[in-house]
Design goal:
By secondary structure, this protein is mainly alpha-helical. The protein is 67% helix and 3% strand.
């Protein structure tokens, strides 16, 4: 049995504290602000080492549609945190501020050192609107801006950040083995942390208070905080089977809920209207987080229920979207086509809903090899990542790889951390017979996901091609490869020194 990223880090921080030989002293919690001893640079490096493992986890997902939606919320929160002064210029520059998503169906989200956040699709699937999702992200963002993780780790002042990083990596490796992880988690002072609670109650209240202010300043409704609390508390009472690890790492106490209720009552009240867009995104998250055939069939079955037509429009859109996607994933093209037709009727007149339906239709057409239909549905010149990548995949498959490569070169020049785009560019170069450039693009994809060892391996493979005269006299590309190989080799040596 493999542990998901959410379960990994919930235990990793506890393991670090076990190895550090200390438990948090809640009575001596630092006041609001950054009083930690760990520098922001050290925290960033620590976070990168954990993030590198999450990128490698089979549950990691870079779905352009889901990523774009979550990023839209995330960027609004970051802008609000900057405007409020919660996000300092130093942390803004040094930290990653990246959300990594996992396909796990558990309801969980977690902050990592250095501005990395983990978000499980199980949590996305249970949110009713973007305000609820924003409340979770704002809470986690506030854990990072207040340096809560660094403050916890700095309590053992004899441990340097690099020693803590090494211990964290050891704990992370142990949690990949359930037996070793169980042995590591038994006994020791970390038991005082109440079953792997990441943060103290004071830190949770601080993240609630600041997170509420940030999400409200970003334009989200404060009711989202309260309704998400209510939803999680109800789940806690009715379900204790491990499906809600967020409740253990961020316990929904009565005190916290009451405080949020009182705070949101002071804020301007605007009725929260569920959107078709969020409902469809939640439906997509549900499909990806429940990949089993039986689960997919159950999702399709909901669309055939006679009572669906009497349900609210938002509910119909969510069910039909999920059912169409699930049908396509089970390679039932006729069913997917019928469900898409019903979905089009439901989302008519809603621009965001129509766009998601069109993207889904293009995605299904691409899987079926109908590249002409893909290019009719989406624009290859679009500045939106989902349309761009779908259209360029269709171009590569339909024999227009040169056009796709030119557009992708422009994209990765401004988005160098887009591993998916780099891999598509590698495919485009391969289709044109440009092997050297294809290998270099593959290496850049590994760099984007912090896998410097694999990246250096690909760069060396490219250098070997040049030595053997397989570069087609592409001297500019060969020079770029030499430079990038030296840079990545330097990063690897830096990591080795940290150990």
């Amino acid at each position: 049995m493999r542990l998901s990223p959410s379960r990994v880090f919930a235990g990793v921080l506890t393991a670090v504290l076990i190895l550090a030989g200390t438990a948090p002293s809640y009575a001596q919690l630092p006041t609001l602000g950054d009083n930690s001893d760990m520098t922001s640079g050290a925290e960033r490096k620590l976070g990168e080492r954990v993030a590198r493992e999450l990128y490698r986890d089979p549950d990691y997902i870079d779905d352009p549609v889901l990523v774009e939606y979550v990023q839209g919320i995330w960027q609004r929160l970051l802008n609000a945190a900057r405007a409020r002064g919660e996000l300092t210029s130093e942390l803004d520059e040094r930290f990653a501020w990246t959300v990594l998503m996992g396909k796990d169906r558990t309801v969980n989200a977690f902050a990592l050192p250095g501005g990395w956040l983990g978000l499980q699709l199980g949590l996305v699937s249970v949110t009713a609107n973007d305000d609820e999702l924003a409340s979770v992200l704002a809470h986690e963002l506030s854990h990072v801006t207040q340096r809560h993780i660094a403050r916890l780790m700095a309590q053992e002042k004899q441990q340097t950040p690099l020693m803590i990083a090494a211990m964290l990596l050891g704990a992370l490796a142990a949690t990949k083995n359930p037996q070793a992880g169980a042995a590591l988690m038994t006994g020791g002072p970390a038991l005082a942390m109440q079953q792997q609670l990441n943060f103290s109650r004071d830190m949770e209240r601080e993240a609630d208070r600041i997170g509420l202010g940030v999400m409200t300043a970003a334009g989200f409704q404060p009711q989202g905080f309260v309704t998400m609390f209510d939803k999680l508390q109800q789940a806690s009472r009715l379900n204790d089977n491990g499906a809600y690890p967020y409740l253990r790492t961020h316990p929904m106490t009565t005190e916290r809920a009451a405080e949020m209720q009182s705070r949101q009552q002071l804020a301007p009240q605007t009725p929260v209207q569920p959107t078709l867009q969020h409902a469809m995104i939640a439906g997509r998250a549900r499909v990806f987080s429940n990949p089993g055939v039986d689960a997919q069939r159950a999702i399709v079955g909901e669309a055939d229920a006679a009572a669906l037509s009497s349900q609210p429009r938002v509910r119909q859109a969510q069910v039909l979207y999920g059912a169409a996607l699930a049908s396509a994933r089970m390679h039932d093209g006729p069913a997917a086509a019928r469900l898409l037709q019903r979905l089009d009727a439901v989302v008519a007149g809603d621009a965001a809903g129509q766009r998601l339906a069109r993207l889904l239709a293009a995605e299904i057409a691409l899987d079926q090899g109908d590249t002409a239909r893909v290019l009719r549905l989406v624009d290859a010149d679009s500045k939106s990542r989902p349309e761009l990548l779908l259209a360029l995949q269709a171009q590569v498959q339909s024999g227009h790889a040169a056009e796709a490569a030119q557009r992708l070169q422009t994209w990765v020049a401004t988005q160098p951390r887009d591993a998916l785009a780099w891999l598509l560019l590698s495919s485009a170069y391969t289709a044109q017979g440009q092997a050297l450039r294809a290998v270099r693009a593959e290496a850049e994809a590994r760099v984007a996901q912090l896998d410097y060892a694999a990246a250096l391996d690909r760069f060396k493979a490219a250098q070997d091609m040049v030595r053997k005269g397989q570069d087609g006299n592409d001297h500019i590309e060969a020079s770029i490869i030499d430079t990038r190989a030296r840079q990545v080799d330097s990063l690897l040596k830096e990591q080795a020194l940290e150990r």
